[in-house]
Amino acid sequence: MPNPSSPQPTGEIRDAACPFCGLVCDDLVIDTSGARLKVTGNGCPLAVTEFGRKPGTAKGAVRVGGRPASLEEAVAAAARLIGASKQPLIAGLGTDLAGVRAASQLAERAGAALDHMNAAGFVRNLLVLQDSGWITTTLSEVRNHADLLIVAGTDIETRMPRFFERCVANRETLFGDRRQCEVVYVGSGPTGEPPVTGTSIIRCDPTRMHEGFAVLRAFMAGRPIGAESAAGVPIATWKALAERCRAARYGVIAWMAADLDFPQADMTVQVICELVRDLNRHTRFAGLPLGGSDGDVTADAVILWQTGFGLRTSLASGQPDHDAYHYSAERMLSRGEADFLLWVSSFSTTRTPPATETPTVVLGRDGMAFEREPDVFITVGTPGVDHAGHLFRTDRVVALPLRPLRRSPHPSVSEVLAAIEAALRETA
Ligand code: SF4
Questions:
Q1: ipTM computed for the complex
Q2: Suppose 211 and one of 47, 221, 228, 230 were both cysteines; which one would form an S-S bond, judging by CB atoms 3.0 to 4.6 Å apart?
């Protein structure tokens, strides 16, 4: 399936897009002349590690029952397993736009449910969006307009190492070259050095920061505050932040739902979104929900346009049926509601399937290790490294093209899924 006759890049590639987090930075410089790809400009530690992984070989890249097999044998075995299943599940979905589209088509043919490995965080946002809507912004707006950024319950940098460099620390904008953006952390602070000078931190337990945001709402509404502290922080500190918010020309509150991993975290997201709405009565403010790792934003977007719903949609009845709770892959597997799992992870070697005795097919990146060998394993190429593709950025406003950077012996996820679907069609 890989096309060895396709022209391969050589030497230094400029303006390469990076698929390893939701920023999808498109300015990397990559040296392709050595045995391994080398990021020589505009990278970050995550990009250096992921681009620099040893290229795979065909040896042991495809296995059936733990034994080396041909790709055709593996595709046939996968088609047999999914064809024999009463309730298949296609999950992980760490792939690009074409890969998710192929997964969606296979799900339609097989009557499978679709879930993404990052869906738990997504659902925290989705519940709020469904319940009350939100006002959000884009990375370009942050870069060009924001003069106050509140970072809620995350450090951002761990998952998006260049966020501050690209969106906050820039002095030049479309409208001038004297831009400054103040950063205030609420909850935990930055992991290392503060990302920009003048950063302030309101340290509190992230599971209680909604109390502080509720106090900000009260200040905005002019209601009296009887308490002396909220989330363990003096009311005077919250009052100072309320005044800073009111004085902002364009304020933004950013959060990463993946980092708000505690019970009822959706309530925290809800309070943030309601605060943003309140602040717009006084000045311009917007939310910035951050994500996009392992193609989660792309998966949600593609399934949305293919089925009318986002992640956690089942096609078992022949009609799309969305349920953010019932179609959780972990829940379906732990309760025995799925009798087959097809797991996809083409960006990460560590995002392996949940522990399960259910028959499993894995389309994974070279270098994956398993506690239990899947019934079928097919090494797939990584979009933006081994083959071309497209990925949506975290703010969903643009799908960036990814370029192939080396010759790869591995097929893409979309090629393998299309082959499984074709084999399934032939046996129907
Ligand atoms: S910040 Fe993200 S997209 Fe940008 S280079 Fe690093 S890993 Fe890649």
A1: 1.00
A2: 230
